[in-house]
Amino acid sequence: MLTIKSTVRSIIVLLIAGILGACNTLSSVDQPQNIVIENAQAPVSFADYDPRIGFKGGESFGGLGTKNKKAKYRADYIYNSSMKPDSAQYKNYSDNPIKQVIAEPVSTFSLDMDTASYANSRRFISTGRMPHPDAVRVEEFINYFPEASNEKLIPLSDSPFAATYELTPSPWNADKVLLRVNIKANDVILDQLPPSNLVFLIDTSGSMYGPDRLDLLKQSLKLLVNKLRPVDKVSIVTYAGEAGVALEPTSGRNKAKILAAIDKLEAGGSTAGGEGIKLAYKMAESSQINGGINRILLATDGDFNVGINSTEELKAFVIAKKEKGITLSTLGFGDDNLNDAMMVQIADAGNGNYGYIDSLKEAQKVLQQEMNATLVTVAKDAKAQIEFNPQEVLEYRQIGYEKRQLKQEDFNNDKVDAGDIGAGKKVTVLYELTLAGGRPSIDPLRYQVNKTTVPITSKSGEFAFLKLRWKAPQDKKSKLVSLPIKKKALVSSFEQAGIETRFIAAVAAYGQKLRHNPELSQISYQQIVSWADQAKGKDPQGYRSEFVQLVKKTATLEDKKN
After folding, report:
1. Which is nearest to 518 in space by CA: 131, 97, 139?
2. Residue 242 resides in a domain
3. Cross-referenced InterPro entries, in alphabetical order (predicted)?
């Protein structure tokens, strides 16, 4: 009897030890890993990028019971994804350097704008995490916000553009001056838009399961569907384990059919993104509208693992199709496996925009309020060039636009691709300048001729000269327009600058600080809050007030780290 009891006790002990061992094995799976950063060396702590909450046994998702085979797959996927490290990918772009006007008087760049970086970084901060510096592209921060004042713009004759500018002492460096240039494209009213041939290319792979992914994507696309006219056509292509057509080209008159097709979308399988893109372009070509809008909207977390899966392959494919009149925009969803690096590059290659959707409010901004700018191109291959007057400016540094830099000779070369500007789109450009007589950041060169001794009396009232070059949507030859930036636009103090300049300066300071730019090391988040809070202006959608709260939350996160 004693032997039997001893044997039973031994078995129980062994069972308990086995269970504990299994638990330890499970917990060891979730180990710190590094985020994949293109061209970047510094690893990122896994602790800063928590994975999604895992599936708990016995739960069901989306009203599907666990006996359902598809529901069981989804539950298993979510559980496994909670064990995966964050594999989000961001491309590294080094900050633009300070340049001497005497050596490099001209700044040239592609005139285009996305806003994804701000929305994605906001998502990080809102969930209590600091964004990786490479996730922050400052030009996408400063171009996120609608105008908050009735700022007077100067029409640029024989062009679809109007512009304005202002100069103010920098709030973060007493030795510098900020130059803000605003360029706005003409808008069009909805009834005057050309007919649209839109293909929704939707990632329905397993990684897209969840309320912040496919569920949000479906709600977002419905907002755009509600704006469709009878002359517009929509197709839906999906990709997971394989690509398929979820909706043949359908008139915007038949909204119920389009919405029903969106409602049927479900997530599951691997990610045959390359096959999906091929099929989407095939659909776009089959119903292409001459003189109309022919655009693919790719909605995904960017996780391509079947078919064409290298960014360079995708870019080459998209560029070739762009030449046939079909453009591509991207909409990013999700967090831990977001391939931001790929999304931004193929949107650029496809002459489209890249937006990140973290909420239904953001979807309304991108797909309703900014629909014209997203879909209708008023100027293609748009380039900007600013030449600085060496009599007035010693140095300059462009804030942001690192991924859009062009060579000086590219400006007049119509074969060099550049950005497309959508209807009503406002683009803000910001420079930090050292004026003549100020303290330069770079020592003068010993053996170079001092070009500032050359008399330029006729241009002495100018700080710089802005030139824009673009092509009409159907043209192959570019046009040119210019605008002198005059010295009289310099205000005597930062407090006297207009609200647009002051608010954008605060946003630029915030973005640079998130990128760990040493220029902003001595500026606190509290100071940035003060600058922004005093320059909110008209803010009907609350974007500027939200920014102030976001900076306050960032200050709290920074305090916790310290």
Report:
1. 97
2. yes
3. CLCR, Uncharacterised_YfbK_N, VWF_A, vWFA_dom_sf, YfbK_C
pLDDT mean for each 10 residues of the chain (562 residues): 49 49 41 40 33 30 31 32 60 93 95 91 94 95 90 91 96 96 86 86 88 91 89 92 88 95 86 79 92 91 66 87 90 84 89 90 88 80 95 96 94 91 90 94 78 53 95 90 95 96 98 95 96 93 96 91 70
- For every residue of 349-374, which 3-state class applies, written as one string? HCCCCEEECCCHHHHHHHHHHCHHHH
**For residue 337, which amino acid is it?**
N
Same domain, 505 and 488: yes
Amino acid sitting at position 513: K
Same structural domain, 146 and 199? no
Q: Which domain holds residue 211?
A: 194-375
Domain match, 138 and 234 both: no
The CA dihedral of 285, 289, 291, 296, to the nearest 10 degrees, is: -60
Q: CB neighbours of 473 closer than 8 A, spacing ≥ 6?
A: 377, 378, 379, 380
399 and 522 in a single domain? The answer is yes
Neighbours of 476 (CB within 10 A): 10
DSSP 63-84: TB-TTSHHHHHHHHHHHHHHHS
Cβ neighbors of 169 (< 8 A, separation 6 or more) are 176, 177, 178, 491, 492, 493, 494
**Per the domain annotation, does 4 fall within a domain?**
no
User: Residue 183 sits in a domain of what CATH number?
Assistant: 2.60.40.1230
Q: b/e map of 429-444 (b: 16 or more CB within 10 Å)? A: bbbbbbbeeeeebeee
What does the alpha-carbon distance between residue 427 and residue 409 come to, in Å, rounded to a whole number? 23
CA-to-CA distance for 213 and 216, rounded, in angstroms? Answer: 5
